[in-house]
Write a structure and sequence with these properties.
This protein is mainly α. It contains eleven helices and no strands. The protein has two domains: about 100 residues, no CATH class; about 120 residues, Serine Threonine Protein Phosphatase 5, Tetratricopeptide repeat (Alpha Horseshoe), CATH 1.25.40.70.
């Protein structure tokens, strides 16, 4: 019988083999690096076969936390393979790993952003009781939560549509209150945000106070082919140009 001390290096070797194979095979997020890895050669086919044989061996020997930890690995190819092959061990972390790869942030940061997106805003105080600084901060935060709702879906759907629609209503209510307080101009800095959702929703909110700049931003968002923002940017522009409501 193999002793515990002898088993540990063997397990470490299996994990190392997984990392090495992931690096040699590459992933969808590593296409721009070492393109020769993706050529359909007998060597690549052999590596795929080794990876397929390695997965059940790892599952049978490694504790789940060791395998899920690979979803937070610094190497993007290791993260990708782990998230895809061990997703059933921690579906939330696997989802965050893929979201992080999509948005170029760490798995942990993506996980926290998704959880924040799912966290509803405080019910008190009422929006009418907030000052313009507080309303502006809430608007910016709601936009970020709306953005991450695209990665908050469950049961195989990446987008949590119900969550997203609820945040859309929240953003609308914040815009209405800012307008009531004659403070929509406070949202203009968000037109320069790095986040596409902040730019898009701030542009919609400021069409009446800075139409030229807001239209430019919405046109740029519409041209991005972002499935979660571009169609709505086109719709907002069309409604605005027709003189119709775009909320």
């Amino acid at each position: 019988m193999m002793s515990q001390g002898a088993a540990e290096p063997a397990l470490a070797d299996l994990v190392k083999a997984f990392r090495d194979l992931a690096d040699e095979l590459g992933s969808a997020w590593g296409l721009g690096v070492r393109r020769e890895r993706y050529r359909r050669t007998p060597e690549r086919a052999a590596r795929v076969a080794r990876m397929n044989a390695l997965i059940p061996e790892l599952r049978s020997q490694a504790p789940a936390e060791m395998l899920t930890a690979l979803m937070e690995d610094e190497n993007i190819d290791t993260r990708t393979w782990a998230a895809m092959r061990f997703f059933d061990l921690d579906e939330e972390l696997s989802q965050a790993a893929i979201a992080g790869l999509c948005e170029d942030v760490s798995t942990r940061e993506a996980f926290d952003c998704i959880e924040h997106a799912r966290t509803p805003p405080p019910k008190h105080p009422a929006l009418s009781e907030l000052n313009t600084d507080e309303l502006t901060a809430r608007f910016a935060d709601a936009c970020l939560r709306k953005f991450w709702a695209r990665h908050a879906g469950r049961d195989g759907d990446p987008v949590d549509v119900e969550l997203r629609n609820g945040i859309v209503r929240e953003i609308h209510a914040l815009r209405v209150e800012l307008k009531r307080q004659a403070a929509l101009e406070r949202l203009l800095p968000l037109l320069n945000s790095d986040n596409i959702t902040q730019r898009a929703d701030a542009a919609r909110a400021t069409l009446q106070v800075a139409p030229e700049r807001a239209v430019q931003v919405l046109e740029a968002v519409a041209s991005k082919n972002d499935p979660n923002e571009s169609p709505w940017a086109w719709q907002s522009l069309d409604s605005y140009r027709r003189g119709e409501s775009f909320w």
